[in-house]
Amino acid sequence: MGEARYMVVEGPIGVGKTSLARRLADIFDRHLVEELPDANPFLEPFYGDPARSALATQLQFLVNRYRQQRALASVQDGRGIVADYLFAKDQIFAQMNLQGPELDLYREVLDLMTDPIPIPDLVIYLEARPEVLLRRLRKRNREFERRISEAYLEELIEAYRRFFHAYTAAPVLVVNCSAIDFVEQGNDLADLIREIRSVKHQGMQQYIPLGSQ
Fold first, then answer.
1. What CATH number does residue 184 fall under?
2. Whole-number Cα distances in Å, 141 to 22, 154, 178
3. Residue 2: is it exposed, middle or buried by C-beta count within 10 angstroms (0-12/13-18/19+)?
4. Is residue 1 domain-resident?
5. What is the CB-side half-sphere exposure of residue 157 using CA atoms within 13 A?
6. Number of CB atoms found within 10 A of residue 141's CB
7. CA–CA separation, 211 vs 42, rounded Å?
8. What is the distance in angstroms between the CA of the first residue and the CA of the last residue of the chain?
């Protein structure tokens, strides 16, 4: 496949995608694109009362992500990009959190976003068990994330798995990182870099680090 010019790191909340994206951007000398969830004023109210704030939260994320992705088209210095989210994954949360007319409205707005956005050369999809995600969320201790339950994380993990099982737009490297810390452990990160450079084809490729076996 050659070295990916546009890499995306994806996975459920707490899995470590932003930390890994930062390291990869530095190692591969790429522009870093971060989702910046704090820019969504509806996110904290959503975790307190999902039914009340779900539509506003989802539409705000959709607009923010679309604007950011469109801006990537202007990056022309040849350095490439590492992003900590995949635009298409927005649908995971829409289908989880919206129903009936609200989901229909979301889809109508999405259909209006017809300008092309870049397709990644490689998606690095991080997986971890729900109890691991919950422990990591508790460790970083953000106020609104304290309301996230293990049951919600189980549902989210399954939704991610269904989505990427059907995703065909780019090669996907699935990485089990329940027992791995790519930021703190240099050997783990070095092994992952070698795996990233070895991806050669479309479809899904599994990578189970030695520490996870």
1. 3.40.50.300
2. 20, 20, 19
3. exposed
4. no
5. 20
6. 8
7. 38
8. 27
Q: What does DSSP assign to residue 87? A: G
Where helices occur in 73-129 by DSSP H, the ranges are: 90-97, 100-112
Please indicate, yes or no, if residue 168 is contained in any of the structural domains.
yes
**Structure letter (DSSP) for residue 206:** E
Query: Going by C-beta distance under 8 Å and a sequence separation of 6 or more, which residues neighbour residue 171?
Result: 1, 121, 122, 123, 199, 201, 202, 203, 204, 205
Q: Is 95 within a domain?
A: yes
- Report yes or no on 171 lying in a domain: yes
Question: Exposed (0-12), middle (13-18) or buried (19+): which is 12, by Cβ within 10 Å?
Answer: buried
Residue numbers of the domain that contains 33: 6-212
How far apart CA 20 and CA 9 sit, in angstroms, is 7
- The structure tokens listed for 141 are 């201790």
Q: Beta-carbon neighbour count of residue 140 at 10 Å?
A: 8
Q: What is the pLDDT of residues 151-203, one digit of tens each?
A: 999 999 999 999 999 999 999 999 998 888 777 666 888 889 999 988 877 78
For residue 32, pLDDT beyond 70:
yes
Quick one: DSSP state of residue 144?
Answer: G
Question: Total structural domains in the chain?
Answer: 1
Which residues lie closer than 8 Å to 202 by C-beta, 6 or more apart?
168, 170, 171
Tell me the per-residue pLDDT of 73-127, one tens digit each, with 9 for 90 and over: 777 677 899 999 999 999 999 999 999 999 999 999 999 999 988 899 999 999 9
